[in-house]
Amino acid sequence: MSDEAMQREFMEYDVVIVGAGPAGLSAAIRLKQCAQEAGADISVCVLEKGSEVGAHILSGAVIDPIALNELFPNWKELGAPLKTEVTDDRFLFLGAAGSMKMPNFMLPPFMSNHGNYIVSLGNVCRWLAEQAEMLGVEIYPGFAASEVVYHEDGSVKGVATGDMGVGRDGSQKESYTQGMELHGKYTLIAEGVRGSLAKHLIGTFDLDKDSDVQKYGIGIKELWQIPPEHHKQGLVVHTMGWPLDNATGGGSFMYHLEDNLVSIGFVVHLNYKNPYLSPFEEFQRYKHHPDIRSYLEGGKRIAYGARAITEGGLQSIPNLTFPGGALIGCSAGFMNVPRIKGSHNAMKSGMLAAEAAFDAVQAGQASTELTAYPEAVKTSSIYKDLKRVRNMKPMWSKFGTYLGVSLGGIEMWLNQLIPGGLGFTLKHGKPDHDSLKKASACKPIDYSKPDGVISFDRLSSVFLSSTNHEEDQPVHLQLTDPNIPLSRNLPDYAEPAQRYCPAGVYEILTDDDGSNARFQINAQNCVHCKTCDIKDPSQNINWVVPEGGGGPNYPNM
Description:
Layout: H1 3-6, E1 10-18, H2 22-38, E2 44-48, E3 62-63, H3 66-71, E4 84-85, E5 88-94, E6 99-101, E7 117-118, H4 121-134, E8 138-141, E9 145-150, E10 156-161, E11 164-166, E12 172-177, E13 181-189, H5 196-204, E14 216-225, E15 235-241, E16 250-256, E17 261-269, H6 279-286, H7 290-296, E18 300-310, E19 321-322, E20 325-327, H8 343-362, H9 372-378, H10 381-387, H11 392-417, H12 458-464, E21 477-479, H13 484-493, H14 497-500, E22 506-509, E23 518-521, H15 531-535, E24 541-543
Parallel strand pairs: 1-2, 1-13, 2-8, 5-15, 13-20
Antiparallel strand pairs: 3-7, 4-7, 5-6, 9-10, 10-13, 11-12, 14-17, 14-18, 15-16, 16-17, 19-20, 21-24, 22-23
């Protein structure tokens, strides 16, 4: 640790939580509930890099209330923003011009969305933050945890927030403010998918040595206000198929909320092979399908965002604890891929980690491994939820959409009907960044120009995300080798960062005659989706936190 770092101011808590998402806030709330039940006291702090709680939260979302029912049995009386219960649940296979509806009886019962709620997950988190603060939790939005702080014995002591007011050249501006350390007896990492601290901790403590590789997708979402005659509150529509080919995994969602609002989004699995594929353009193309366009015509797009999602499932969950803390929520990866749901498991993981941390603090412990937490996960609803779908993603990846999803569906039914389910677990194989073929072996994809009515370009989309970064700050998208984009990625893969980024962050610029190619990073456009950190074929891009408060400011997403 440098002399400068040693001089940082610090604050001490019993538990420090990084990330005010469903997992982090549920953990904070459960810690305070445990203290109330025991007649004890416990100090809890939550750091959130967004400008406010919910600013960086992006999800479909249809939420299974199982964890919320446990956390707050009276959530309806408390005014939780779960207003729209699912009333109509449809699953479609799309072709280029038509569709085929899958009968609901063909799906295992746990795939049904009846009893679930269509929500803005950002607004749910804002409400959870209110409940947490009423219980005495300290929440600090606009403070990005940029560094793990260690004890001399190597256990985690806490985290440090990034310095503010640093220029792009590394100089201290007039507005410079040094970061602060937050020390905890235990630190819970709830950054979401591919968080920078979680990535560091997984590597430092070799937490993934016993797990399969993690798999990812990118989810791109828009919020629309549509004409009342096109709106059906409570309608849930999921699709697979067109515009993706059989070898490319993914699908879509369309959720009808209250007030004529519709959440519509598209997911592309990041193990796709063609470097010319653009998830953003596939989403824009999808909206022109007759079955989808009919809902959007006459409507107005009012928000946009993108986020990576974890898809590895049960076999990809890393070891959950390290000396002094634990991974919770999507930092560990508890999403159920076929259900397209993870919030309920994220919340439950936070609650289980909170109970383990509370017991340890009450026993006078600090900086130990919270072994009770992973043990509790194995006997919880999380494990049951993920175990019965664990082979869907590997089958999908290996056999393609039509055969793979069919085989996965059969296995899910057998896991439903046979006590204990089937005994085998398939592996995922290689990580997503290794899946791209060379550009010379692939055909470029001709995407139509956006019409500005149903489909749009990236820059107008980023505008709707209200993304903002102070331009004069160090670029938070770090290249290990600045030559690789042009020396390797461009000739081998036609530099796919131009296409997999949903915010126009990466560009190849040339002179008018096509000469003098250069790689440009428009870091101010970044919506913090983390796709570049995951998909770059050279693993040359390292996403780190920018100044606190930077990034998107999602409303009702």
